[in-house]
Amino acid sequence: MAGVNLHLPLYKPNPTRSSSSHTPSAYTTRTTDLITIPQNLAYWESIHTDIDSHLKKSIQIREPISVFEPMHHFTFTPPKTTASALCVAACEVVGGNREDAVVAASAIHLMYASIYTHNLLLETVRVGSESGPGIENLHKFGSNIELLTSDGIVPFAFELLAGSGNDSGRTLQVVIEIAKAVGAQGMVAGEDDGVEAEKLGGEVARQLHGCGAACGAIMGGGTLEEIERLKRYGVYVGKIEGVLSDEGKDEGVKVELVERLRGLALKELECFDGKKIQQISSIVGV
Amino acid sequence: MAGVNLHLPLYKPNPTRSSSSHTPSAYTTRTTDLITIPQNLAYWESIHTDIDSHLKKSIQIREPISVFEPMHHFTFTPPKTTASALCVAACEVVGGNREDAVVAASAIHLMYASIYTHNLLLETVRVGSESGPGIENLHKFGSNIELLTSDGIVPFAFELLAGSGNDSGRTLQVVIEIAKAVGAQGMVAGEDDGVEAEKLGGEVARQLHGCGAACGAIMGGGTLEEIERLKRYGVYVGKIEGVLSDEGKDEGVKVELVERLRGLALKELECFDGKKIQQISSIVGV
């Protein structure tokens, strides 16, 4: 396994405060200097390649360009999320075929893309009102299109799922899991953190990791217990990423927190065959 | 059949421009003086009662109140829409049982409620920026909650559908129909009218009438042709309502347009048993 820095999804896009130390694109993934988590990179990259290729087939730029160009843009602009990758990995852990989980994983990516775009818009509105005009220029599309597109992506994800041709019963279970993660329950989770929209987006994004793993286990034909355990594993992975991306926290505190969460995460995998968990556990550096 | 004025869903809430001629609540349904469409009121009311009772069971005000109170509010505040009623009526036309369509009809109502709330918010933003502060007081909840709730209602509707326990294959077909109506295709339809968000909401709401009728036909086990015909019938009903609610149009022109649309609508019902279409055709005054 190659030792590489963990690539973190960005929950808090900050397109305006670019200092000289930033790269020209403000949307590159962040890493933290002290905590390096080795991953089985090839495995995760192969998953992302499969999800990407499915999404590219599903979302082609076609007429009317004014609708499908921004949808394509906002689907492929956000950094990769481990939430969708976990979906495929969880499917394989319970003995399912990758193909069975790729559509669900694509739907998870779309939900994440919608949250990401929404946060981008909210950040614009917030910073815009503080700093006056000019902010719009940083965005390829206007805030109106950002809002319409991020809203339009959500039903599109359900359409993709429902039309997959996969097992109907499992697909409906996945619809419920995803709807709960991004809907009312996501709002509940957001409430616990206070109603700030940005935090809400972050919390929903973390929930999406648990949801992703659960959906993969469902599509792979996992038992109820397997689904629940993989869901909790996914939530811990999401929490670890949350800690790592928290720029306000002391590095020592972060190391301690990540160690504790990693232990809890791995406990959830104990009931599975040791060989099968090699791939999925590599995401927390085992 | 009782001759009553057609109740029109409001696509363009206008909470701020209340003149002395307005009732205190700006959200009452509008009627037009010249065009009176007789309806089989008891039939449509019985449908709305069934949908309402299902929604009330599904969306109860529970903890955390800050999430479920606005969701309840924004579900039951919008005027009734014939889009959801058409769903139940179409199911009955193709020989299905009402129970099979009530969940789909509830999901259609929720989508409509989300569009309605979104439009309310956009109108506030638009008028607010023109008229300065004070506008917020007209809303029970802040614009932040309006946005979060209208977004949260969409996945909740899919959750409701997927968990209904109805036929899986038909349910997945309904998920696709609804997702198309409110998602990318809705945006396409909006584009044709220009990108104004308000118009888009209106167009999506009209599409929802076709979608509602199609979903009812699907749940009732209709053939492909029956589904397509009822979908077009629904679109005509939506267009008639659009004409009737257009305050800028001359009454004479309206009468002519409605007559033409009514003829086209009824043509779509010709393939059905004459007795069975009595109820559904009463919505266009036959």
TrEMBL record, chains A, B:
Protein name as annotated: Uncharacterized protein
InterPro entries from the UniProt entry: Isoprenoid_synthase_dom_sf (IPR008949)
Organismal lineage: Eukaryota, Viridiplantae, Streptophyta, Embryophyta, Tracheophyta
Listed PANTHER family: FARNESYL DIPHOSPHATE SYNTHASE, HETERODIMERIC GERANYLGERANYL PYROPHOSPHATE SYNTHASE SMALL SUBUNIT, CHLOROPLASTIC-LIKE
SUPFAM superfamilies: Terpenoid synthases
Cofactor: Mg(2+)
Keywords associated with the record: Magnesium, Metal-binding
A GO MF label: prenyltransferase activity
